[in-house]
Write a structure and sequence with these properties.
By secondary structure, this protein is α+β, with helices and mostly antiparallel strands. Helices cover 47% and strands 17% of the residues. It contains five helices and four strands. It has helices at 2-9, 22-34, 49-58, 78-86, 90-97; strands at 13-17, 39-42, 67-70, 73-76. One of its GO terms (cellular component) is cytoplasm. Keywords: Cytoplasm, Redox-active center.
């Protein structure tokens, strides 16, 4: 899990994703629409992706993609991101993380 948190801390918004996941695409598109450029790790395409997926599962995030970190903190998956967006707090969170300047 150390590697996961290290990767998550390197950029303001980090998304652990799978290329075949439609909700992953939806959440990435939401970030792009905000003007945020998330760092996306497609676990089914990167070396060590399976190990990252296993580490996330050991941390209680099993099979639920995308897995989103904002400001180095685990926020959750699509449901959590959409809830934050709909209640208006996502943009403030992105600003605090330095991912959004407006």
């Amino acid at each position: 899990m150390d590697r996961v948190f290290q990767l998550a801390a390197e950029r303001p918004v980090v998304v652990f994703s799978k290329s075949t996941c439609c909700m992953c695409h939806t959440i990435n598109t939401l970030f792009f629409d905000f003007g945020v450029n998330p760092t996306v790790y497609e676990l089914d395409h990167i070396p060590g992706g399976r190990e990252i997926e296993q580490a996330l599962a050991r941390h209680g995030v099993a099979g639920d993609f995308p897995v989103v970190f904002i400001g180095g903190n685990l926020v959750g998956g699509a449901n959590e991101i959409m809830t934050l967006h709909l209640n208006g707090s996502l943009s403030a969170m992105l600003k605090r993380a330095g991912a959004l300047w407006l």
